[in-house]
Specification:
The protein has 9 helices and 12 strands. Strand 4 and strand 5 form a beta hairpin. The termini are far apart.
C-alpha cells in the first residue's frame, strides 16, 4: 500500500478527493527495483498498471538484429502499463530501470474500476497518451531527418527540461545516462555519441568535468536543430 501524499503528486490523480486517493492507495502494492533491472519485458502478459513513485525508467524495444532502442524515459510520477489493460495484449515494450526505482502496482480489475467511476482520470490519461504519441512522432522525425549533432543537441535539451537542475555554470542533467544509452535513444553508436559530446565540450556548449553533463549554452545547442 502506498500513501495518498505520493499519489497526489501524480498528474493522473490530481483532481481526486482524499477518499478516492485512499481507495487507490489501498489497492496499490509497492515494489522496489535496483538500477538496470527489468520491471517488465516486451512480450510479457499484461494485467498491471504501474506508477513511478521514485526514480527513472527507460521504455525499450529490441530490433530483430538485437539492437536496443530507447523509446522514451519516464520519471517520478509518470506511469506505464496501461495499454495492455485495455486490449489484453502482451507488453509492447520493456521497462528497464535507470536508477533505483520504487513503483506502485495496481492490478487490472482495480485500475479499470477506478476508470469506470472517474471520468476525470480517463481525460488525464488520454491527454498523457497524446503527449507521448506526439513526442514519439517528433523523435522518429528527428532520427530520420537530422544529423547526429542536431539529434544529440535535441536530446540534451530535452533532458534538461525533465531532469535539469540549475548550477553555477548552467543546467546540470541529474539523470546519468551512459553514452550507449544516449546512442540507443537517437539511433547511433556509442563511439559517435562520445565523439560528439567531446566536440560539444571543446566548443564550450557543455561541461563534462563531473559525472553529470552540464548544459552551458542551451541557445547554441538549440541553433544546431533545424
Amino acid at each position: 500500500m502506498t500513501d495518498t501524499a505520493n499519489l497526489r503528486n501524480v498528474p493522473l490523480f490530481r483532481d481526486f478527493e482524499e477518499a478516492q486517493l485512499q481507495q487507490i492507495a489501498q489497492t496499490a502494492a509497492i515494489r522496489a527495483y535496483h538500477k538496470h533491472e527489468f520491471i517488465v519485458r516486451e512480450g510479457d502478459p499484461g494485467g498491471t498498471f504501474y506508477i513511478i513513485l521514485e526514480g527513472s525508467v527507460a521504455v525499450t524495444r529490441v530490433a530483430s538484429d538485437g539492437r536496443e532502442t530507447i523509446l522514451s524515459i519516464l520519471k517520478t510520477n509518470d506511469f506505464f502499463g496501461e495499454m495492455s489493460l485495455f486490449d489484453s495484449s502482451l507488453r509492447s515494450a520493456s521497462i528497464k530501470t535507470l536508477s533505483d526505482v520504487k513503483v506502485g502496482v495496481i492490478d487490472e480489475k482495480a485500475f479499470l474500476d477506478v476508470l469506470e467511476h472517474s471520468p476525470k482520470i480517463a481525460r488525464h490519461l488520454v491527454t498523457a497518451l497524446s503527449q507521448r504519441l506526439r513526442a514519439a512522432n517528433q523523435l522518429i522525425a528527428a532520427t530520420t531527418s537530422q544529423d547526429i549533432r542536431a539529434r544529440l543537441a535535441s536530446l540534451l535539451l530535452n533532458l534538461t527540461q525533465s531532469f535539469g537542475e540549475k548550477v553555477e555554470n548552467g543546467t546540470k542533467i541529474t539523470l546519468r545516462l551512459t553514452n550507449q544509452e544516449m546512442a540507443n535513444m537517437i539511433g547511433t553508436t556509442r563511439e559517435t555519441v562520445n565523439r560528439t559530446l567531446n566536440r560539444f565540450w571543446d566548443e564550450r556548449l557543455i561541461d563534462m568535468r563531473t559525472s553529470h553533463v552540464v548544459v552551458v549554452e542551451p541557445e547554441k545547442l538549440r541553433s544546431l536543430i533545424p
